[in-house]
């Protein structure tokens, strides 16, 4: 007969909860990386820094049919610009 069956059950529960917590953390981190939240935040930060550093630049409102031609011309002439679109 075992002397400490309760202690053994507590240990089993702790091990199972620890493994479950690690699995949950890993799946959450993987989801964040796959869905791109971290990358999107990084790209947004870099974009905002570049926009803040601009001066004497053009603002293209909308990048539809006409806006694309304007953007192509600005890229070809290497003029600084920012596109505002949905």
Strand order of the largest sheet: 1-2
The average pLDDT value, as a whole number, equals 88
Number of strands: 2
Q: Structural class of the helices, strands and pairings?
A: mainly alpha
β-strand percent reads 5-15%
Between the first and last Cα atoms, what is the distance in angstroms? 71 Å
Largest sheet: 2 strands, parallel
From N to C, what is the helix and strand string? HHEHE
The shape, in one word, is rod-shaped
Q: How much helical structure, as a percent, in the residues?
A: 55-70%
Number of domains: 2
Q: What is the tally of helical segments?
A: 3
Task: Give a short summary of the structure.
This protein is mostly helical and 86 residues long.
Please characterize this protein's 3D structure.
By secondary structure, the protein is mainly alpha-helical. It folds into two domains: 1-53; 55-86, no CATH class. Helix content is 70%, strand content 9%. Strands 1-2 form a two-stranded parallel ribbon. β1 (58-61), α3 and β2 form a beta-alpha-beta unit. The chain is rod-shaped. The chain starts with a helix and ends with a strand.
What features would you highlight for this structure?
2 domains; two-stranded parallel ribbon; 3 helices; 70% helix; rod-shaped
Walk me through the topology.
Layout: H1 5-35, H2 37-53, E1 58-61, H3 65-76, E2 81-84
Parallel strand pairs: 1-2
